[in-house]
Amino acid sequence: MSGPLTIAVLADSTDLLPLLGQFLGAERYILQYFTSQSEFLIHIETVKHELDCLVFYSQQQLLPVINYLYDRGLILPVVIVHRLIPHNLPSHETTTTNNLSVSSSYIYQPSEVILAVTELSDIGVAIDKAIAKFLNLTPIMPASEDSQPTKLEIAIDLPEPNFLLQQQSRLAQKLNERLGYLAVYYKRNPRQFFRHLDRQQKQELLDRLKSEYRKIVIDYFADSSQLNIKIDEFVSSIFFRDLAVSEIVKIHMELMEEFSNQLKLEGRSEEVLLDYRLTLIDIIAHLCEMYRRSVPREV
To answer: For the domain with range 190-294, which CATH number is right: 1.20.120.1730, 3.40.630.30, 1.10.1240.30, 1.10.10.10?
Structure first.
């Protein structure tokens, strides 16, 4: 494991520091704590390419700091404590306030994570989520004369998009080096999750998974060197699609029913199918291990 994540905090007082120290262990995080807006911004300008996430806990300084960062195209992962959201911010159509584009869905940038002060114990999870969402941000680039702009689900209009792209590349590389297998979590695209697919896409995915599972079942008790590869590929597909375990069980049961009908037609015993419960257990065990090793959690 390489260096820990570097977190810059802007707060109204030092009251938050002991709590952050309690919830963010030194093994995983380096905290840089500020109560002065000017000192915070000087620090950001100095080490902007080394920061991994910002945490805002400052009622009066929030918008001025965001304006400053946004005007300079400095977009970073951020967690904003819920209590600090100004009540006078627009809550409808996108407007512009002090050169800051304010939307009903975000204050600083679309990947920000809002955390209630009463849930501060989840700050580590919030930071992980902010980083994961940040890696999916897409800058709106000027369209060329012979190209049409592409509709983006998550996009932000930046004065200088290069900083965002550099930060994403640096952070993705750092996570891969620092977290190893854990970096797989950040590669999941929520837009590709099973629950977000339309009916036809869901059925196509289930049909493909059922075909793959059939091959695994057929080879499970055979001496096949490719079995582990097939299981890993099958589990990876489930993981990246965020498929529920119940769907896997359903695939297994449907396949066992098909095999059962075939055995009946052949006048053979169905008891052999009981052994294939081991196949299902094996798949679920692999999936559990993948989640255990990859989903961010507090140390």
So the answer is: 1.10.1240.30
